[in-house]
Task: structure prediction
Amino acid sequence: MRMHRVGKTVAALVAAGGLLGTAGYVVVGSPAGDLLFAYGCGDAEERLGEVLAGESVLEVPPDGSRGGESYQECDDDDRFVVAGRSYAYDGSPQSALQHYRDRASAQGWRAVAGDCFTKSVGDTTGYLTVWGPDEGTLQVEITADREDSRWCE
Result:
């Protein structure tokens, strides 16, 4: 008789452990758990942003640029990091692109597409892109993530 009670207790403990394990997977190991526990930008993305912002290709604007504003961002959903600069710019798109082609090439960046360059940065791949000038604004930025996405292709 006693063995029967111990058997029921052990069976109940095993069942409870199974339910807790399943619940743990649902909370931690599933996409919902990932959303709860790993959502958003953290220290790793902050450090990557600092590395990107420190790239010297961003430091010297093309002739005809005025002002200049640095920015650094991280997308909480996908955790990609962007660092760049925007300028008031009166020059042509061709002269801006040539300026960054020359600077990027001299600093180890490789042209992948017309206005996009790639290089290993901060243990991942960085993508340097030149935008504009649109409505008198020129932007140059580096985008990267830990997932090694393909931003130029």
